[in-house]
């Protein structure tokens, strides 16, 4: 049953009584859902680039696209309800044992119904990938490739799918300086991408929200990508003085043609879920309100197909390209190592981190 | 007096009007005499040992040694004359004469307005491809590649375009058992797909209704695909313990990206005509009510373009990939030979056939 | 006293402001002195004998032998100084100074806001590409590849983007006859397409109106393509007895799948801007009424991204394919040389020109 107007008004009152500031991210979301529920899709002109606050609000509202008013109302009520009941945000250093089996700090991994599910679990960091998280994902993929499940799924906990490489990784500069950091990052990245290239079973992304950077570029190595209509796909490499990775310099032009791929990878155009689907990066888009239910119903059905046949069929499609993809990965990482030491990149990261420090 | 060129042409026309299939033995002899009469002694390299059809034709032609052209012409005329007057062919097949010119049992083939039209003609079997039909399609493609038409079209008679491989093919197990059956099926399939890879003129599918299995996967080798909005595209390989063929493991990811290709080829998602068109597998979709009229109007216009230019342009697009496609075809067939002997596959086919037996 | 770095840079800026074309002889000398001043003695391999433009430049540079860098700088400054004060260039071309800087007869080239804009300027000929225009586009691309702009844009002045190869080029038959004409056209075309394959910065097409023939096929080599909804995309090669060029026999099937590519390239289907966008040939379509405003706003924003990063990212996407594309280009040109001498082609061009003569 959908939330009534009364539920909606109750929720609005509850917001005023919240004991803790829910943070800007959540407040923007509440703002957006309120506008969508009362006025429908965003109908005001985009604020100027320097009008930061209004720009953020406009973005939040626009992101909801054509979400129906009653879905927005329902989501608003659900979000407020979750805020009122959530006790304390759990620090990522203190994992609750029931949620993080196998000793993962940054992931939750489960396996049932023939599906191994690897969930990014740094929601307060928008699931940005820390150095530790890179390593844990590699371990989890290794384990999933050897377990009995038919399918392996990656998804995010919280609002984001994954916001990409955690730029604070770059602040942890070793005694060898930037050059050594660039070199070790190169090796980590290459090994990480390699795990996706070589993964032997159907690998599926359930993109529950915005995806940024490497979490986008890797999608070309997945066998199916299901997205909520709330998801966006953004690879702002050039603004950061960086260049594409995850084999995207090869897979994206192959999937969508170079005229579309360049706009994403070189000019940093952000795609909606619908656009990403039209261009073949995403298999299918679902309304956010029914996303989880529809996707898992479908995946459970697929997981009942004969597991060995699935593996054979995936590999007849993929194995032919593996050598090529390994070469692409190596080449992209060499270029990135160079980029990371460029002025363009250092300036961009410095700016990003100093802006962040001021907030 | 020796047969004149005119007698020879009359005899060729008479062959097309034969009311009964003269059988493969006679057809091979006609082929050989025709080649000898027009080109002289066999002058082409011997086909590979597994290229059965071409091997048989090559053998027949070679057998004629240095028989002079005019003797060959005379023998051809005599042989046709004997066929036309012979009471009953020894073949056990009983084709209806009006529907099956040129002796095809499972096809109707016509040629007019610059278009050779190969029609699947097992409507009561949803145009499922029997072993005989595989062979006849190969013969029809060979003939079409050598005739004067500008375009070659494949389409289905009845409600279906084609329901794919006839699973009852698997019940005809030879003395060598499943292993031998898998081996011979491998060879048949590889030769069949090869005919599509090598076809030298624009090859067009007119998909009048549902398409299943290999009739779908082959579409990546066609130069244009027009579909009725009643058509669907379904490759339920995994449920049958099988893996993709027809070069689809290569062509589909190239056409639609791997996120869409995997859902079809590995998870067996059925596509509507509109979806198949959006994903580039289909050139254009037409309402069923006007489908035939619109498509043939367009094709007749295309067939008026200079035939040799069409052939050259097709080949500059396609020839670059032929070697790759041959390797893909070989690889897919090796995998399938293995799959056909797997438990997954045998269980699935057993289930299918026993369900069918109960009906 | 020797010319300082500052004098040198001033001289470079002065060159851009020259009101009259100094002629190819002088431009080659400027090129050579610039290279010598910045890179020292000629250090690149000698271009092939048919690569006329690069050969001329290489010759000019090589001629300077071991001239020291600072002498080259001084000579450059002196030469520019003499040009700025010289009354009239000796060139027989009579460009209108206000519209045609740098002496282009068929183009207008500007450079501001980080964008070099190469505009086709034969609006009364629907911007058909004459032999001279092929050469000027090559020169303009060469210059753009070396200037400081971040992006290079091609667009058309007037109603058309570009109507393709000017068929009257075929009427200028040299003493060697059609065979010699076909041979020289082959070389011109190959060099022309090569410039697009090798272009090192993001290359963008702003398709303001109908595009025909080679102006369409080249789009697969652009990094982004923005189109007015008035634009159409038409490659009527078969009707002219010709075959696809501009690497389209490779890029188009890659971008849109062969079922869509063949209909364009072989059957000459004309696409609307919307269709071309759905098929990945076009990045985005805008209403004609706001086209120029929206596109340039976007491009100016993109041009603010770090120029070197853009160049690196373009090349990681493109460089991997360059060798392949060069081979495709060579192959397409060989086929076309043959086509141009075919009856199909000669008849078609004769018809076209005689129809034109009657108008």
UniProtKB/TrEMBL annotation, chains A, B, C:
Keyword entries, A-Z: Acetylation, Isomerase, Mitochondrion, Peroxisome, Phosphoprotein, Transit peptide
UniProt enzyme class: isomerase
The reactions it catalyses are: (3Z)-octenoyl-CoA = (2E)-octenoyl-CoA; a (3E)-enoyl-CoA = a 4-saturated (2E)-enoyl-CoA; (3E)-tetradecenoyl-CoA = (2E)-tetradecenoyl-CoA; (3E)-nonenoyl-CoA = (2E)-nonenoyl-CoA
Annotated source species? Tupaia chinensis (Chinese tree shrew)
Which family would the database say this protein is a member of? Answer: In the C-terminal section; belongs to the enoyl-CoA hydratase/isomerase family.
Nucleus among keywords: no
Q: What does this protein do?
A: Able to isomerize both 3-cis and 3-trans double bonds into the 2-trans form in a range of enoyl-CoA species. Has a preference for 3-trans substrates.
This protein's pathway reads: Lipid metabolism; fatty acid beta-oxidation
Q: Which SUPFAM superfamilies match?
A: Acyl-CoA binding protein, ClpP/crotonase
- Where the record annotates domain ACB, the positions are 4-89
Q: Indicate yes or no for the key word Phosphoprotein.
A: yes
Report the EC number(s), separated by commas if there are several.
5.3.3.8
Question: What's one Pfam family the UniProt record gives for this protein?
Answer: ECH_1
Q: Name one GO cellular component term.
A: peroxisomal matrix
Protein name per UniProt: Enoyl-CoA delta isomerase 2
- Where does the protein end up? Mitochondrion; Peroxisome matrix
Q: Tell me, in one coarse class, where this protein mainly resides.
A: mitochondrion
GO MF, one term, reads: fatty-acyl-CoA binding
């Amino acid at each position: 049953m959908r939330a009534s107007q009364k539920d909606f008004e109750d929720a609005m009152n509850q917001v005023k009584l919240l004991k803790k500031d829910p943070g800007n991210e959540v407040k923007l979301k509440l703002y957006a859902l309120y506008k969508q529920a009362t006025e429908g899709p965003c109908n005001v002109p985009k604020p100027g680039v320097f009008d930061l606050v209004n720009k953020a609000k406009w973005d939040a509202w626009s992101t909801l696209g054509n979400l129906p008013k009653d879905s927005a109302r329902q989501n608003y009520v659900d979000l407020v309800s979750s805020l009122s009941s959530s006790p304390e945000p759990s620090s990522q250093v203190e994992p609750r044992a029931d949620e993080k089996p196998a000793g993962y700090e940054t992931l939750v991994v489960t396996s049932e119904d023939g599906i191994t599910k690897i969930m990014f679990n740094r929601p307060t960091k928008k699931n940005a990938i820390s150095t530790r998280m890179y390593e844990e994902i590699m371990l989890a993929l290794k384990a999933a490739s050897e377990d009995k499940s038919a399918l392996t799924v990656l998804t995010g906990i919280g609002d984001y799918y994954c916001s990409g490489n955690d730029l604070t990784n770059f602040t942890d500069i070793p005694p060898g300086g930037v050059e050594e950091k660039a070199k070790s990052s190169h090796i980590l990245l290459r090994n990480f991408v390699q795990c996706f290239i070589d993964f032997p079973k159907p690998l599926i992304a359930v993109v529950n929200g915005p995806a940024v950077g490497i979490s986008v570029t890797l999608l070309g190595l997945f066998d199916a990508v299901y997205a909520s209509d709330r998801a966006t796909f953004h690879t702002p490499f050039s603004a950061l003085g960086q260049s594409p990775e995850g084999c995207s310099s090869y897979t994206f032009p192959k999937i969508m043609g170079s005229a579309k791929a360049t706009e994403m990878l070189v000019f940093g155009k952000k795609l909606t879920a619908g656009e990403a689907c039209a261009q073949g990066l995403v298999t299918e888009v679902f309304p956010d309100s029914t996303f989880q239910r529809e996707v898992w119903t479908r995946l459970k059905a697929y997981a009942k197909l004969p597991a060995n046949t699935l593996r054979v069929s995936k590999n007849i499609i993929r194995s032919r390209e593996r050598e090529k993809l390994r070469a692409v990965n190596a080449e992209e990482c060499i270029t990135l190592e160079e980029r990371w030491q460029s002025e363009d990149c250092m300036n961009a990261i410095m700016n990003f981190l100093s802006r962040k420090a001021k907030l």
